[in-house]
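The methods section describes the discrete structure representation at length, but only in general terms. Each protein is reduced to its one-letter sequence and a matching series of backbone shape codes. I believe one specimen quoted in the main text would settle the matter. An entry of this sort, consisting of the sequence and the corresponding backbone structure tokens, reads as follows.
***
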Amino acid sequence: MGDALIVTIDGPAGVGKSTMAKRLARLLSIPYLDTGAMFRSVAWKLGDGAWEWPEERLEKALAGFEYGLSGVGEDSVLSLNGTPIGNEIRTEEVGMWASNMATLPVIRTFLKKAQQALGAKYSLVAEGRDMGTVIFPDAPHKFFLDASVDERARRRFLQLQGMGKPADLDALKEQIARRDDQDRNRAVAPLRAAEDAAVIDTTDMDRDRVLAVLKEAVA
């Protein structure tokens, strides 16, 4: 990683990783890497059911994917083949597709290389599910954010409402619990905190308090 500063923020769906990573990256004046968006972009680009494709077909499709990163903090822009990735990937349906994709070694291997290539090029705050355990195991600052399923569903509900997207709180609770089970129990790179990560339960913490804890630890 050279002289690049790498900060990792991992945790389950809906815990607020993206918000915290963006704000911390802004404070540090470095880019924010949304690795979940990389999985979602693959799922969105390839479409429903692509996780059932033969491995050779997936490898051929992925060979045409190239990611770029620009900007700082919340203004960071992740692009795929030169096109900025937008809110088209932010539906719960695409989120489930991405979770299915994430169980495939061919997908994880490809995106691991893509993420590490970005980390070798830029200082960044990397947010995802296995940043501290698999992608950047030597990162000097690692965090694992967690919160109850009810609280995470409430946060995602408010997020989707703010984006003008339809949202059902009970359905979100069910989807988040299902994704937790799949993410924590998959055979490849299951969701867990790195042994040297600071684990922060954010259930009863507001965003400013969480950010203050992160900032103090990195400073």
